[in-house]
Structures are given as structure tokens and as C-alpha cells.
Amino acid sequence: MDDITRSPLYSPDLAPIPPEQRTWSKWNLAALWVGMAVCIPTYLLASYMMRAGLSWQAALAIIGLANLVITIPMVLNGHAGVKYGIPFPVQGRAAFGTVGVHVPSIVRAIVACGWFGVQTWIGGLALYSIWNAATGQTGSADLTTGKFIGFTVFWLINIWFIWRGTESIKWLETWAAPILIVIGLFLIGWGATSAGGFTNALEQGKQLQHATITALPDADPPGRTLGLSPLLNRDGTHKATHYRIFRSSELKNTPLEWNALTEPMTRVPIGMDPHMEVQFKDSEGHESSKVLFNADNVAARDVGFWQYLMWFTAMVGFWATMSISISDITRHAKSQKDQHAGQFIGLPGTMLFYSFVGIFVTSAAVVAFDDVLIAEDAPWDPVSLVARFKSPAVVIFAQLAMLIATLSTNIAANVIAPANAFSNLLPQRISFRMGGVIAGLIGIVICPWWLMDEISGILIFVSGLLGPVLGILLCDYFIIRRRTLVIADLYKTDGPHAGVSTAAVVAMVVGVLVAIVGYWFKPLEALYQLSWFTGFGAAFLIYWMMMKRRFATRSSLHA
């Protein structure tokens, strides 16, 4: 075997891990997935679907099925990591070339760095909340010195684990997993107690899938009368007692009077006024947030086949980045059996469980908190939920739980991949540690405290377009190379994988174009709604055809 240690593409962090040094069992991998999957985005997943009109049962079914589906390519792409002990940037050299692999690996790294910044800011806010609860201070909605101190402290905690290496990460995930499961069970217990029983809590959840304001189809003319439906108490009465409408600028002088709500639905004629805000209050004086509606677009929610399929695609794309770089993790596994069992045990079940926790706890909050008058104000995210607790001890406990969840997700999902990607840029100069620090610094540069919502939207969009990369990796490893890699060639600057693979670049570009063409060209909108699948399939097919032709040409030349 060639001496790869002299190659400029080699470093100890990118070198194949010998079998005797792979210490992660199936339970370590399962714990890793519990740590990654328990996070605020997972908690929120079902809420997005329910707000779009899906039932909580349908939302859970989609989440469970989608995560079973994505685990299959996750396990397949993790095969090379286990067999050869190599990370994603080295594995990707076979398909994309030693230079070409930088494109998908750096794109994947930048997405992770963005999430690192967002999650670190969330962790900093948890520290800030703990400090306020412990000292009896009132938090501020503005940017404060305390929030930046919390961000800095949590950033340093992340960097400490990075600097300690992958064994400290394994230790963190192994200990965090059971704690996070217990916390989920605790939240379910709180919800059942607060809502008057397990079944009753789920019954309240049905309210959250209905719009607070809908255009009534039987109005004359249609769409010019709205139906107001605030949340209900357990006895079926409205939690809100009054409403008021803030009309558009042409009617801005209209008195903002409170009007009594009627049962079971209040009908409000709006004439030709196309824009308005509606607000509710209860008998105790609690006021809801103002809900903005464009009356021309308000309609009863109609959930059809394409909506279900679109949400299924979005849920599959949730772990799109991890499915690409999973060999960064599986290279530490003892065997293929361990990585198969660990991933199937850890990923689908955890995603399903914590999505259910989010549904159940938020449904219970509908009746547990008197001042939650409309679905839009339901505390879907755990930050909003914890903020409603009065006991400092409960707030501190809940925020510590959030810290553990955020830290375990951040380290495993948002550090390992970019650390290896940056190390692969200059293997002789950038170590895994240094790559992780670079990822942390980029997480600061993006200023998540200003652009958190915008960044999250961009990152989700980009993640959904990474299906082509996975399609190319699986086609190359299983179809073209039949699970056989020459490790020495992956470290050669003048070997068969040197430079850029034209087939991989063309396939990736075509795959991305197929995935997004429907965004601009409406007749092909289905391609965009199924972007992860269409991009994956197109790239897989194009790469297979181009590589098959290349191998056929080589065979004819040697004949």
C-alpha cells in the first residue's frame, strides 16, 4: 500500500481510522441521534403542519414516515465510513475529485456554521434566562449586555468540547440522551396534569389546526364576511370575550372599539376593505397579539394530496445535510451492524417522540394558560413556554434542559462536518480543532441576534437543495465502484481522482436546476415541491449515465 502520510491531502484528522480505534457502539450512535434530534426545530416541526390545517395525527405520521425514509440513505451513505474509516471530505473525493469535493463539503459546512450561530444564540438566551430567574431580575426583549455575555459563555462551552475531540463528543451525547428523554416525559406529565388528563390535552390540540379568522364561503359577496374563532375553554365557551378590528389606512379614523363575541362563531362583514388586523381580549383584560389578514386571500384551509406530499418532502430534507456527511460519524462505529442499528434506533423514534412532545405540551397550554386566547399565541416553542412559568426553580430547570439539548445538537450536527470540511481545504495546516474553531467564528460573524429568522429560512432552503449531492455519492459508491475504494488514490494529487470530476459537477448542477425550476416556472411547480427527491433522482441518473459512458470508453480503448 502506498504511503499516504506524505501526501499534501493527508492529515491525522483525515486519515482512515483503524478498526481497533473505532469505539462507538450502536448505543453510542443512538444516543448521538437523540442528542441531535432533540432541539427546538424538532419541537416546532408538527406546529408548522398543524397551522397549515393538518391534524396532529397526520403531522406525526408524516414526520415518522419521512424520518424512516431518510434513515435509509443515511445508513447507505454511512457504509463507506464504517468500511474504510474515512470522513465525508475524503469519501467525496472519489465522486467529485480531490478539488471538486470542496464545493459540496464547503456548502454543507456553511449551512452548519449558520445553524451553529443560531443554536449558540439560543443557548446564550437560555443562560441569560437562568441568570434572571436566579437573581429575580426581569428579562428584556431588546439586545442587552447580559444576552451577549450568555452567548459568549455558551460559545466557549461549545469550543471546549471541540477542542477536547470526538471522544468528549461521544461522552456528551451518551450522557445527554437519557436526560433529554426524561425531560420529554416530564413535559408530557406537566401537560397531562395541566389540561386535566392525557386525552383532554390531545382534544384541545384540534383547535390549533383551525385558522382564527376565515373567509366565509356563504357570504354575499363571498369573502366579504369573516368568521372569528378564538380558542375555547374546556366547556366549549370562548376564552376571549371581545374583539376589535384595526382597519386599513383609508379607514384609520374608525374608533377602535371592543365588540362582544357571539357563539359559536362571530360573523364580521368587512365590505371592500382588503387589509385589517384583528385583536381579542378576555374578561380579565388579557389581550391577544394583533393578527394581520388580507381579506382577499383569507380562506378556509384546504389540505389536499400535494400539501401532504410537500410536507413529507420538507421533513425528509430536514436531515439533508447530515445524510451527506454521515460518514464523519460512522467512521467511529465498530461495525456496519452497529451503525445500522444505532441510526434506526436513534433517529426516527426520537424525531417522532419529541414532535409529539411539542404537540402535546402546546395543546395542553391552550387550557393551562388563561391568557392564550388565539392559536397564533400558543407557546409552540419551548422558549415561549418556559417564559410563562412563574416559579424560578422551574424556569432554571427548564432552561438547563434547553441548554443540554442545544449543546448536544450543536456539537454533533453543526461542528463535526464543518471541522472536517475546513481541515480538508488545507490538511497540513488546518486540524480538526482549528476547523471547529473556524466554524465557531463564522457562527459569530453571521450575527444571529439580528438575522436569526432570515438565516433559518435560507438554511432550510439550501438544505432542501442538497439531495443531488447525496444522489451522486450513493450512485458512485454503490453503482459505479460497487462499494470498493482504493484508499491510497483518495490521497493522491495526481491519481485517478485528482482535480474536478466533470460528471459530478454536471450532475449536481442539473440536479439543483431540476429541483428549483418549479420555483419560477409554475407548470413545473411539483418539481420544486418535491425538490429533495427530484434533485436526488436527476443527479443520480445523470451521474450514472456519464460515468457509465466514461467506463465504457476506457474499456474500448483497452480492448
Summarize the helices and strands and which ones pair or pack.
Elements (H helix, E strand, L loop, with lengths): L25 H12 L2 H12 L4 H22 L1 H6 L3 H4 L1 H4 L5 H34 L9 H20 L1 H29 L3 H8 L7 E3 L9 E4 L13 E6 L11 E2 L5 E4 L5 E7 L9 E4 L10 H12 L3 H6 L1 H4 L5 H33 L13 H6 L4 H23 L1 H10 L6 H14 L2 H17 L2 H14 L21 H19 L4 H5 L1 H28 L1
Antiparallel strand pairs: 1-2, 2-5, 3-4, 3-6, 6-7
Helix pairs in contact: 1-9, 1-14, 1-16, 2-3, 2-14, 3-11, 3-14, 7-8, 7-16, 7-17, 7-18, 7-19, 8-18, 9-10, 9-14, 9-16, 10-14, 17-18, 20-21, 20-23, 21-23
Architecture overview:
- A four-stranded antiparallel β-sheet has the order 4-3-6-7, with no helix packed on it.
- The two termini are 28 Å apart.
- It is built from 23 helices and seven strands.
- It has two domains: 4-196 and 303-550, Hydantoin permease, CATH 1.10.4160; 211-294, Immunoglobulin-like (Sandwich).
- It has helices spanning 26-37, 40-51, 56-77, 79-84, 88-91, 93-96, 102-135, 145-164, 166-194, 198-205, 305-316, 320-325, 327-330, 336-368, 382-387, 392-414, 416-425, 432-445, 448-464, 467-480, 502-520, 525-529, 531-558; strands spanning 213-215, 225-228, 242-247, 259-260, 266-269, 275-281, 291-294.
- It is 61% helix and 5% strand.
- The longest helix has 34 residues, at 102-135.
- It has 559 residues and is mostly helical.
